[in-house]
Amino acid sequence: MSGLYVVSERTFYWTDFVVYQHRVTELVLAFQDSFETGVGRIIDSLNGDYNLLYVIPLLPISWVLGTSRLVYILSLIILYGVPFIAATAYLLRYLEPTVPPKISFYRGVMIGCLIPMTWIPSLRGFPDTVGMLCVVAASGLYLARQGGWRFSGIGGLLALAVLFRRHFAYGGLAVGGAIALVELWLILRSPSPRNLKKQVWQYSRNLGLMGLSGLALLLLVAPDFTYRALTANHRAVYASFSVPIPESIDYFASAYGYLIWGLLIWGLWRRWRYQPLPSRAAGFLLLWGGLAIAFQVFLLRYDSVHYTLHLTPLVIVGISLLWRSLSRLPRQLLLGVLLLNLILALTPLGSQNLPGRQLFASTHPPLVRQDYPELLRLVDTLHELTPNDEPVHLIAASSSLNRGLIRNAHWHQYAPESIPLSCHIPCGIEILELPTADSNSIYPLEPLLAAEYIVLAEPLQYHLPRQQQQVIAVPYEVFQESWAITEDFEQRPETFSLENDVTVLLYQRRRPTDWQTAVNTLIEMKSRFRDRPGLQSDWVNLTPRIPLQGQYQGSNPANFAIERLSEPLHLLYIGEFPNPQSIRLQVSPHPDSLSLVAHLLNSQAEIIATSEVASESITLTSEEPAAYLLLTLTSPTPTSVQLEQLSVQ
Fold this sequence. Notes:
Number of strands: 13
Distance between the termini: 63 Å
Low-confidence stretches: none
Number of helices: 24
Radius of gyration: 28 Å
Oligomer: single chain
Mean pLDDT: 91
Largest sheet: 5 strands, antiparallel
Shape: globular
Strand content: 5-15%
């Protein structure tokens, strides 16, 4: 089934649908170079937000059979998907102790295979099932064994899930929270004054072992990753991806099918009413499922297929329990419903507007682009226009057209015969990178200033609520409303017609943008944003063709490195001024080989004060309140530059 699904696709993948497959290819290439290179690549990845641990089990298959899409997806299914189903089915023996373990296990495997969301994350290219496998294994270890030692193993498995994929921290919290509540309930259910102190000590020891063992593993394997995970506000960074609660409820309900959820609830009620489950195992299952629903549906609210994995064990177990409670004929009807649900979810038939369709799982058929040749024509045109890797800025972020789509289509057409180890696949055409959600992006000025070509899709292409993607909407408005900066570009004659009635236009730069126009553009952009983008620094590079290192690693003071300063560089400070009429600028040590000139600008981008920065500290004053500070760096000869402890007060 999985192989047929993959070979039925005719598309170019983008972002998470393909990036994990590319990392497998890169690691295979590294090991083909040398064992030390491959191991070094894995170790270097451990402290990143996306490491390569998930690739290790896939390496033998990829080494022998290659790194094609078919091999990659089948590897995910065989190595992660099937064990995940088996581990979830294994839990049933603790919920049905009177049923022969083999019977409950095989029933659970059958039900797991019939749940669409068991397969869809892997079919879309996500390796996340390996993380959920660890979470389920931790749950099985809790139900299977007695003794305090197992809590160390539980903590280690939950930490391993987080190492595989960061969002399983919430899976760990759901399992850990369920364990803590069940163990507390067991103490309170039969309190023994004589043993209460011992029970409380064991309870505290066990939870401490679980937490400390997990934390120890995280710190041992990936200390920097762990520090960021504990200190960074990821909820704020990804706030733009959270949908409203009603939409979240509909997404997760539709992912499995409203009818399936109804059957699940009915099954749990029937078992509670007629065939009560073991209290400890049942309490753990309900608390785990309830916490997982609370985290995913009501707290995080991310509508992407890999987050459904947190709920899939609950669905498999719940439907399995329902099956057990039914007689032969209702079981056959249930089997028919599950088969129909699977077919509607995984085939184009599910896209038809059939009666009662909304009761079944949402459709995720094989991806097939109807505009495949036209998209290739766009890619070929961009390839011909950028022989020297001239930067291109794409103003679109939807499934019809996005940065990853163009880059992967270009890679498909123009991948080199020998891929260098330095290549971060897909390497090739330079589509300027700009995060497309406001909460983890910047003001979209610098890509406009850096671009030699603009790719503009009409109508506006976005995949989040428009108010959460102003980083895409505002540049679109720049060209639709003919802002002054558009005079620096001219429209080319080529047009392209893509699926969903999308028309693509090309613009080519005809002159550099001066700093006055750049500042005025930024001022107008800021007025279109409700809030400042989440990753925006206090410093904006108005000459982005000169790369500025350190721009987003601290704003006040800032530490910048410029590899080669060959023309005047304009940096704009957009942070708050404690006293807008008296601004102190400090840089230590002062770069004597450079000419530094500071300008205070008002809210209309007019210069109201100017001073040469001839020492480590200067003060600029003006009668009119300043809104911005412009710092211009000039060198008589091309040189590298270090600006350290640059602060504005």
